[in-house]
Amino acid sequence: MTTEHNPAGAVRDEDAFDVDAVASWLREHADDATGLDGTPDVTQFAGGASNLTYRLDWPSGRSLILRRPPAGVKAKGAHDMGREHTIQSRLAPVFPYVPAMVAFCQDEAVIGSDFYVMERLPGTIVRADLPRDVALDEAAARALCETFLDVLAELHQVDVHAAGLDDLGKGEGYVARQVGGWSERYRRARTDDVGDLEAVMAWLDAQQPADVATTVIHNDYRLDNVVLDGLGTGAARITGVLDWEMATLGDPLMDLGGAMAYWIQADDEPAYLAIRRQPSHLPGMLTRAEMVAGYAARTGHEVPPERWRFYEVFGLFRLAVIAQQIYYRFHHGQTTNPAYGEFLQVVRYLDTRCTRLVQEAGG
């Protein structure tokens, strides 16, 4: 039996949209308009700091999820709703963890931007801590880690051509593009109250390895982006993978590095533990080293510690850039969401951690 632990709250004023316009449009364009009569109640999920996510609940009992870019942002790049919708539509036949798509709207007259709507997956999405009524013993925690790795490895083994995703990204040369691209993004988003990170960027540029493969990568794979069924029973399974806005074709070890940047473990320093977004610190959870070894066992991509250092630093650096891009909006008054202001301390800590790892590597 599945228990819901994913509450959504009131829609922020700056993120409101014309609910009646969406409801009317869906009745005409949804793949399945069953149960969409009337006006839905709308609530907003607080987890995301990029694209916005809402829950729509109709009087009939049907619930859907709507995704849209922030107000005032054109749907390009990281806010491309059409791309996000296409990726999930094409992955669905070969990767059974994507929500079913309901409709994609390109008519900006409806709410002022593109948006797409998908089915809601029942289950649990864990955040920094487990829900109060859920407990994991050490065996269940370990099993959850193993399941998490199983699904990531399964994604990286998807046949790109069979899925019709050949045009998802440029593929070969991914590592070099990422090092250059994220360095440039940081320089553009840098504010006068954060470090310059130039030494870290120079080290990444000098140490970058060749791509080990080209696969579909999620690029934001973490526990709070998966839906879990049976959490707390000792047999939790992943029923959905969410937030595909950064997915592309690229090096799977870069995907793993990004995932491990979020994998904060029990013996990490307090400043790192303070910014965790998932309960990877609980007793029984695998360490980062064990996760990397487990991934290698599943995929054959062996990564000795000295080689892993590049992927580790890049994952943390990329996370710092994402945090800085979010903070930049707050710093320049582009959002009133106070949560965005908290990313300043995240950037400062990740700067310190990246710099220390580079220095330990002799950089």
Automatic annotation (TrEMBL):
Asked whether the UniProt record includes Membrane among its keywords, one would answer no
Q: Which Gene3D superfamilies match?
A: 3.90.1200.10, Phosphorylase Kinase, domain 1 (3.30.200.20)
Under the heading InterPro entries, the entry gives: ACAD10-like, ACAD10_11_N, Aminoglycoside_PTrfase, Kinase-like_dom_sf
Q: Which residues form a coiled coil?
A: none
Which residue intervals define the domain Aminoglycoside phosphotransferase in the entry?
41-280
- Identification of the protein by name: Phosphotransferase family protein
Q: Which organism is it from?
A: Nocardioides iriomotensis
Report a single Gene Ontology molecular function: transferase activity
Database matches in CDD domains: ACAD10_11_N-like
